[in-house]
Amino acid sequence: MSVDELEQPILGKYRVISSITAESSVFTYIANSNIKTVFVRAISATHPDFNPAYLVACLREFEISNQLAGNTGLVSVLEYGSSDDTHYFIYEFIEGGSLHEQIAISRNRPLNNQTIGAVGRDVCNALEVLHSNGLFHGDLNPKNILYNKSKQAFLKSYGTSAIAAEDEDKLGCDIYALGAILYKMATCQQYRPGKSQPALLLNRNLTPALSTIISATLNEFGEKRYYNLALLQEHFGLAIDPDISPEHLLEQLVKPALPEIVLEPLAPEIEESSAEEVVEPELEAEVESSAEEVVELELEAEIESSAEEVVELELEAEIESAAEEVVEPELEAEVESAAEEVVELELEAEVEAAEE
To answer: Which of 27, 94, 157, 192 satisfies CB 3.0 to 4.6 Å to 42 for a cystine?
Structure first.
């Protein structure tokens, strides 16, 4: 979108002064309101090359800027708004240009020690703001470092920052990236691990201290490197002093000791007590279960015994009843037979008496 296309003020109050860049769906401008000059980034959501991820990064930068408002060293995102499918981000205007532009203007001439040390110190301050809030930049390069008129350096494009927490590797990546930038400023060459020469061999104007700092940020001394930004900031304060020896700096680069974790065994009484507390409920449950089983078995046995007794009694009664049924007919027969014998005897006696 050209300046002519923006007839109305952006977000109703920022009038475009000049257009800076137009790259795919992203357009940048310098604009002003009645009170200040600002930098504007416009993202067209209807452009064929629209990148949603880039929009998300800018929105995150706006969010982080609001959370860290008032912290120096980071370019502030002042405002966000949208209109007609275009998203507008209003930034603090940093007038001095970028470090990338300054390196290009130097035309392969290394920057002086004071400039290198000042940039290192300012970037450290800005990174400390991010790191102390659990973030790391993750995209540190000369284009993302801006200067103001006082030659103070500011960090921009921190929307890709991610939560670092206690991840030393991620925080170390920012320090390493800063080292690569300082190496480029000091030598006009891109740093290549294992191939590049120490900065002091390519730029004899460097102080030994500054050369040592650059090498330490690039992990060229093994574990003798920077594990936190506070010490690096302190060393940048000594960087341009030609009398500071590298040994003095290196002896302070000590890897922090991991906190010792002491595992104290539990007191025997506590262990026994804890064990008893666990065992007793289990034992009580087992005893109760066993008792229930015993009662059930005894009950079953009683029931079976009672049943057997009932059966035996019924059987005896049946036998007695059957016996009685058998005995009664036999007894009746015997009685009848005896009666007949008595009658016969009486009859015989009567006959005998009559004969006489």
So the answer is: 27
